[in-house]
Amino acid sequence: MFIYSNPTGDPALEGEALESYRAQVHQQYSRCAAHRKSAFTHLHAFDGVQTTAIDHVTWPAFPKVSSGIDLAQIDQQRSDLQDEYVEWCADRSGGRVSRVTFTTEFHEPFLILARQGLAAAVDGIRNLYPNSHPTGRELFGIDDSQIEQLSPDDREQTFQNHVQRNPWNNGEFGILFLTHRSNNMFALFELANDCATPNLSLAASDVCAKTNCAVGRNSDPAVCQALQLIARADRSLALTDAPGVTIRKLGGVWELNGVQIDVNAPAANVWQVSRNRRRGVLEVSAGLTLAGEPIRSGAQVAKALQVGVSVLSAPDADLPFWARRGNESTRRV
Amino acid sequence: MNAHRFLLLILVCMFGASAFVSTRQEGLRKQLRVSDVPSVMTEAELMELEDPFFRLVLKQPGQMTSLSAIEDRLQPNRSQRQVFVVSEDIARSSHGQRRMVVSFDGTSSAGPLDGNVMLSVFFDPNGPDGQPIEAWGWDERRGRYNYYKLDSSPSQQQMFWTFRGSSDLADHKSPSERQGTCLSCHINGAPIMKELFFPWNNWDSFKFRAQYLRPSGLSPWPIARSPRLTQLSGAESLEGMIMSSLDRFNRRRVADLVSPTDSRRFDARLVLKPIFATTEVNIVSADVESGMHPFQAPRTGRPTSEVVVPSSFFLNVALLSTLGISEANRFNGLARLNPEEYSRLISETRTLFDDEVGDTLFAWFTPEPSHIDNNYVAGLISSGLVSRDLIAAAQLVDLERPVLSADRESLLSVIPARVALGGDGAALKSSVLELARLQKPDSTSPTAFFVETLASGQAIERLRLRVVEYLDRETKALGDPATRSTELSRLYQLLLRRRRDVLRHPELSALDETGGLLFPLPK
């Protein structure tokens, strides 16, 4: 089995928890690799292959489905409207936006920590919010003592059921991971599953509409088209490790008190990307503008943000026999 | 100082001066018009150039003619460059030429690079080597763009850089003054991205991937494996950068009106022209592929899903939204053609693309009001230079023709050349009404209608009612099976007419760089 990376480098995800995460990820790869006639294969099939290429598929963070909706409303209705595999929360202070935090992290690592117990879950949150003191009631919706009495499965379920009311994730204190029903690892792999099988009767860009791919998003059609094109080139492919969506670029012309700044420069102390590019924090001081406009919402910033996935591929013929298209039964490893 | 030292000093100065002159002669010449003979720029002229491209590349001694060297000089960190590709041939994987636009992030010794310098160069499957390079740089202090080109002249085989002009007073130039200059395309002097908005027809983007530009493509071009294209980025990234650049440019234009530093700018008919005339267009389309593009494979002969006509085809939605007329947004999704209806329009009119019945990559490719115009007008309003009423009164004239309306442009006849702007447009309104009183326009003319609306003080409300009436009429015409087909044909003929209007326009026709691949039209 491929040794999948800790997606964010969070030290709380270690030992048994990391192994549990790896098993879940491997399950997703295996599911896709077993799909008949699919170009999707396992990551370790590419070991030692010299002809690999990486395609970066990017799209705007601003949700296409929310075009025309008031930007403040998009900020408030995160779980309904932010569906491009990236979500954000905008902190306010003194009536203005003071910080915008973006995340592309899947919920799986946090659920795994929740399975282990309150202490592990708190550790995970403290790695994002040092000096914080999350309580059992905040994270699970029940008292600390009740949490330890639950089985791991029940702890995970309880944590998951409480996600929308968890103040460390719902924007009240912060944001941890993706919560929109379409922003999860399963959905991303399902997309790969659907779109990595060549369908030559359609233009590559039309395949999305004929699968479970969500045509109304920016993300799904972009990923689907890319996978189709790679598959049609007789290449086998896999989502790169660690699978998921990462923050690629914050663009636009930014000014601070009327003077243009390089918002991506660490020295500017304005935009910081961390956790293997799965978290981005914009510190909004008074006088910060984007395209001449003060920052009034996270959605405004999302318009300038690009996120994406990366796809590893190589000519099918260059892969080991067991990993090639048509050998889906031997891809079950 | 003794005589020998004095003589030495003079010799050093002379040598130094001639070295300076020869460096400058090597470095940069001026050629504002293609037909001009390039001439050495004077030191005073060179002192006027302060954009990052000049400071980082051209101010340095010697000629820099290699694209790679120029990129390295601007931003040595390759990961902080972005490459965008555009072509009317973008869907054709067979060999040809494409245009590459290179942008830069990060900070240089000349300041931030984002939105401040860009290169453009044509390339073939093997790359851009030896091709002319176009560049622009933004001079923050002067609030203007400077344009440069690396090219050779008929008499000189070697390539050399020339300064091709700036955006200064670009909007004041006549069509004949623009000919042969960068301003023939850069009409307002700012960067242009014709297909500025989703789905960016003709651009590589997340909506359309030109896979031959990627190593994982079926038959990748040799350049696909070059380090340069590891930075291939989609048009969706460029859109934001260009819009930021245009918005900044417009803020400076408007600021110059609030606190004018140059009296030449004060011809109101020129500075207010975007309210009444289309100075530039963007081109937008439906977000579905037509299935009838000759360069696309496979061709299905029709779109695979319904074609939603962009709302900006019907009216200037963006400007009306600025005026607070949210009813304009109800044109979003108003006209939806099923694949059969759309393909029938193409085939029945025998619309041609590259000499065969067909369409652009994305369906319903239509000129629309430009972002630079709309953003500028919005700036005039928010700065209190003109009133919403005046804009609304202008929009009421020929509302259903959002671009290239001769009737709306004729309203400039009642805009005085010299008028005080500001005060929310009170003085301008008075001057317009006074000028109209003197001119006595025909009572049935667009000008008379405009003046009466302006005088009423009810332009916004009248416009709102007019938009609603228009919406209701279109909804009925498209919703009634008895009239739908006729209405779709009428709308499609309007689309064809707008494409022709652009191609026949004395300034906008320069947008067609392909000699026929920009707009599908019947023969």
List the helices and strands and how they pair.
The complex is a heterodimer of chains A (333) and B (523).
Chain A: H1 15-33, E1 53-60, H2 71-76, H3 78-81, E2 87-93, E3 96-103, H4 108-116, H5 118-126, H6 136-140, H7 144-149, H8 152-161, H9 185-195, H10 219-232, E4 235-239, E5 246-250, E6 254-256, E7 259-261, E8 271-274, E9 279-283, E10 288-290, E11 293-294, H11 298-302, E12 305-315
Chain B: H1 3-27, E1 29-30, E2 39-40, H2 43-47, H3 52-58, H4 67-74, E3 81-86, E4 98-104, E5 107-108, E6 111-112, E7 117-123, E8 133-139, E9 144-153, E10 156-166, H5 175-178, H6 235-258, H7 268-271, H8 273-276, E11 281-284, E12 307-308, H9 317-322, E13 336-337, H10 339-349, E14 351-353, E15 356-357, E16 366-369, H11 371-382, H12 388-396, H13 406-409, H14 426-439, H15 446-456, H16 459-479, H17 481-504, E17 521-522
Parallel strand pairs in B: 1-10
Antiparallel strand pairs in B: 1-2, 3-4, 4-7, 5-6, 7-8, 8-9, 9-10, 11-16, 12-13, 14-15, 14-17
Helix pairs in contact in B: 6-11, 12-15, 12-16, 14-15, 16-17
Fold and architecture overview:
The complex is a heterodimer of chains A (333) and B (523). Chain A has 333 residues and is α+β, with helices and mostly antiparallel strands. Chain A has one domain. Chain A has helices at 15-33, 71-76, 78-81, 108-116, 118-126, 136-140, 144-149, 152-161, 185-195, 219-232, 298-302, and strands at residues 53-60, 87-93, 96-103, 235-239, 246-250, 254-256, 259-261, 271-274, 279-283, 288-290, 293-294, 305-315. In chain A, helix 1 packs across helix 4, helix 4 packs across helix 8 (152-161) and helix 9 packs parallel to helix 10 (219-232). The longest helix of chain A has 19 residues, at 15-33. Chain A is globular, with a radius of gyration of 21 Å. By secondary structure, chain B is an alpha+beta fold. Chain B folds into two domains: 26-228, no CATH class; 261-511, no CATH class. The model of chain B is unreliable at 6-25 (pLDDT under 50).
